Amino acid sequence: AQTVTQSQPEMSVQEAETVTLSCTYDTSESDYYLFWYKQPPSRQMILVIRQEAYKQQNATENRFSVNFQKAAKSFSLKISDSQLGDAAMYFCAYRFRYGGATNKLIFGTGTLLAVQP
Amino acid sequence: GAGVSQSPRYKVAKRGQDVALRCDPISGHVSLFWYQQALGQGPEFLTYFQNEAQLDKSGLPSDRFFAERPEGSVSTLKIQRTQQEDSAVYLCASSRGGSGTGKSDTQYFGPGTRLTVL
Known about the structure:
By secondary structure, chain A is mainly β. Helix content of chain A is 0%, strand content 51%. Chain A has strands spanning 3-5, 10-14, 19-21, 24-26, 32-39, 46-52, 60-61, 64-69, 74-79, 88-96, 106-107, 111-116. In chain A, strands 2, 5, 6, 10, 11 and 12 form a six-stranded mixed sheet that branches. In chain A, strands 3-9-8-7 form a four-stranded antiparallel sheet, with no helix packed on it. Chain A is globular and about 45 Å long. By secondary structure, chain B is an all-beta fold. Chain B has strands at residues 5-7, 10-13, 19-24, 31-37, 44-50, 53-56, 65-68, 75-79, 88-95, 108-109, 113-117. In chain B, a hairpin with a 6-residue loop joins strand 7 (65-68) and strand 8 (75-79). Chain B starts with a strand and ends with a strand. The A-B interface holds A 4, 33, 37, 43-47, 50, 52, 91, 93, 95, 97-110 and B 3-4, 31, 33, 35, 40-45, 48, 55-56, 59, 91, 95, 99-100, 102, 104-107, 109-112.
């Protein structure tokens, strides 16, 4: 079974600085998707960035980028120029590309990011 | 509406009561998911609908949990004879396409229903 592990329950970063959140996963599949979702306090979960496992190039979205290491099964999120609005719980998630009957997401336990002014 | 909506936002139930949680997905979205998020944990998959068909219910924890989407739009998650361990946030998500296409359709999440069982 696929599992997703986030080993950093909490992280803190100064405003305007850079922070990296870690995620590892375990799967026997070769074709899958990886995601980072952001869940602000009492607000809806939103997609931050996605990575296709069959693409070697790391995904980027403005200040957010990933370091995808397929052989190591590692998928970290880098947030540059951190802003107060980045404070949230961040979840790493996995999805098998051809999910059969479902495209369910498998989530890690999350990393709570605090941004200090 | 523009996004996924869920109601009620908060629900307090006495142990043994039945509850019904509603999800309104984004209009036209084929896929609908229910997840359960316990305090301090990541969401865990409960069940999946493609239109009105429930294609995967492997995550439902017991036969007290039942979900339906009769017309392929609004979905209801029902929990019978609630127990304290059912206390959690129940998230609904929808995506444009169906399963098996290989596409990375974004799942859009609702705000969740926080269920507290006393």
